[in-house]
Amino acid sequence: MIDPTSQQRAQIASPIHITVGGREVVCKLGQTVGSALLMERVYLFRSSPNARTPRGPFCMMGACQECAIRIDGSIRRACQTEVQDGMRVELLGAGAL
Amino acid sequence: MNDTYDLIVIGAGPSGVEAALAAAWAGLTVVLIDEGPAPGGQVWRAPQTATAKVKPADIDRACGDDLRARLAASSVDMLSRAQVCDVRAGFSVSCILPQGARVLSAPRLVLATGATERIIPFEGWTTPGVFGLAAATVLIKSEGALPGRDIVVAGQGPLLIAVAAKALALGLRPRAIIDRAGYGDWARALIGFANVPSMALQGALWLAQLRLAGVPMYPHCEVIKSSGQDCLSSVTVRSLATGATTEIAADTLYVGNGLVPVDDIHRLLGLAQQPDSLRGGYKTLCDADRRSSLAGLYVAGDGAGIHGALPSAVQGRLAGLAAALDHGALNAARHDAQARPLRRRLARYIRFADASCRLMQFPVTALDGVTEATIICRCEDVTAGDIQQAMRNKARDMNQLKHFTRLGMGPCQGRMCSMNAACLLRRQADLPPGDLRLTPRAPIRPIEMEQLIGTFDYADIPVPKPAPL
User: Fold this and answer.
1) Three-state DSSP class for residue B330
2) Is residue A31 domain-resident?
């Protein structure tokens, strides 16, 4: 392990708070909404619009669109969106209206 | 903020950065565009969290850090978090940045768009808890962590062993490694691996670590089913040799069957391509200096044909140097002095790369075992059975299949399904050889109207006054 710089230590120490379906989730600077939820053991993000089958992130590279959920009011790919303090995430996809 | 450059490079992985650096070194003004938050592409992805940053650097991290440092020290304009939505010949590149839309122009363009992963679908592969193998590397590199408790790693190719070993290093001992390749395939690959001893050694080290940790290996096997309601609970594995099946309890599955080029833009611009019989997919044709069939356009890296990181970096440099030569910034002698040793290095790296690619081989029979209930188009819930029905209704090409079933019309625009659907179409309809791909169209990434329009409103539309009656 490389010794963290004091700035890095501060980053590790000061977490970011987001809400997921009203529930507060603590995450780290640099995480995406997708990875933050996965590390919280939230795998189920939404349902597919046609057959309503349970879905969650798959490719983590922005290609599959399976992680596209409501983030601060608009549909965004969770794996491509970095967490920010106060972010509101809803486990609802584009088809769920 | 400038919008006109001597050269635009799309993609800031190993090939794109090297292309940009080579052209800038020769004196060209260069802008480098990438979707991600930092340069490095997939293979040399930058650590994003503090946890990932303090991890000791492995070879990928060292290469990535070196690349990023050289880029930062150069005159290249780096545009991160930029989604390219359209490219026109000439060239103009429309992209969406967090701050808004921008159109960049240049007489020359390098496409270095890299690769994406291909997965052989199976029943239940859409169950939450099933991820791509590349997804695992994204998480390992940017987060320094991997979700899951009982993880299974499956598929084929060198990435399989890399992910399993890296999971182990993070304290996550995989419950099983399911490899389509048998020992014979790996033995054959070893000969090619010998071309780059450092990489061969790394692979051997990873295998040794996995053996020492007692990770169960299932060679010449495939995953045929993922079970679980809202989340994964178990994985069914079948032996390709005997057909015998076994069920393994798991909450997370990382599965991948090799890489395919990301060639949306190549196709949009109508570049000459050829089917890649070894790797599946298509490769974009170019000369020894990476010039494509379109004047002023150079292709480098996995986006033009899968070879991996080392060949991609060298191809990038060749492309950048060619752009500089064609621009007039380098004379033929100076160019040749740079390019000749690069071409020799490339040949050696390609021999290594081809060995890896043999492990990722995707024969047309790969989808033979797919059941009717297996989802092919994830976005639209189109199953293999739906495709068979469409074909009974006389669907004979991809566009017809799309019209009959909605396959490829969802948000991913065929990224996850069109190659597999084409495989089924060709296999079952005995069609003559030909291009079985969806028509490429802009926008090549999903964008919201708001991002395109920005602050433009109805009132801004110039309406000419009607002529007097």
Assistant:
1) coil
2) yes
Residue A95 lies in a domain: no
ipTM above 0.85, yes or no: yes
Residue B241 predicted with pLDDT over 60? yes
CB contact under 8 A, B139 and A35: yes
Would you call the peptide bond into B411 cis, given omega within 30 degrees of 0 as the criterion?
no
In a mutational test of the A interface, the residue from B130, B138, B420, B450 whose CB has the highest number of chain A CBs within 10 Å is B138
Tens digits of residue pLDDT in A40-86: 999 999 999 999 999 999 999 999 999 999 999 989 999 999 999 99
B119-257 is classed CATH 3.50.50.60? yes
The answer to whether the beta carbons of residues B279 and B357 sit under 8 Å apart is yes
Q: Burial of A28 by CB count in 10 Å (0-12 exposed, 13-18 middle, 19+ buried)?
A: buried
pLDDT tens for B39-62 read 999 989 999 998 899 888 888 889
Task: Mutate one of A35, A46, A72, A83 to test the B interface: name it (highest B CB count within 10 A).
Answer: A35
Contacts of A17 (CB under 8 A, 6+ apart): A24, A25, A26, A27, A85, A86
Show me where the domains of chain B are located.
Answer: 7-116+260-357, 119-257, 365-429
Output the pTM of the full model.
Answer: 0.91
Number of domains within chain A: 1
Hey, what amino acid is at B6? D
* Separation between Cα atoms, residue B217 and residue B235, nearest integer Å: 14
pLDDT digits (tens, 9 = 90+) for B200-210: 788 889 999 99
CA-nearest residue of chain B to A3? B54
